[in-house]
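Action item from last week, closing it out:
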Amino acid sequence: MNEDIKVIFSKNFIRLMNQHGENVTDFSEKTGIAYSTVNDWKNGKKMPRGGSLQRIANYYGVNISNLTSSTSLNSGYSNATYIDKLVKIPIIGEIACGDPILAEENISGYREEPADYLPHGNLFYLKTKGNSMTPTIPVNSYVMIREQPEVEDGEIAAVLVNGDTEATLKRVKRQGNITMLVPDNSDYAPYIVTEDNPARILGKAIKFSADL
């Protein structure tokens, strides 16, 4: 196949991964396809063959034409897009020590999202309380989190601190055996994870939204 179709596929593939809150590692682990192969697809270096192309289409619930067409996924949506189903995503408020993150007593409300554009996995929202992640995440934003025990270096995560009673949003960075929770706002100091200052990753930040 020529270079153009590789680039078209790459753009559509990246768009689908972003819509589902996934990266190359996530896709590779969930499908069992080698990381190097998926990375080549993403970067437009290789084009998946027929069987693999169908496998990707089945995984994301789209047609093969949505992967190979320059217009199918890139044409945008009309102003009157039909939404077939809305899903209620819980908003986590105060956290009771020792309770599972999605325990009923931790949920302060819900936000509705179109089911077709949600990433896989258990999802919840956190509302930002301060400005430690500005300008990346504005104050009073709702940040969608996909529940998972680890994130890649440099990704933003929801992390439990203060004896598992406070959920904070920070960028996770690692230097050797040291793990740091780093705010994007330089006015705040990093949180160094130690035995005396433990932290537990709840999940990966997928996107944020805000009410006007």
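Closing note: Residues 3-19 form the longest helix (17 residues).
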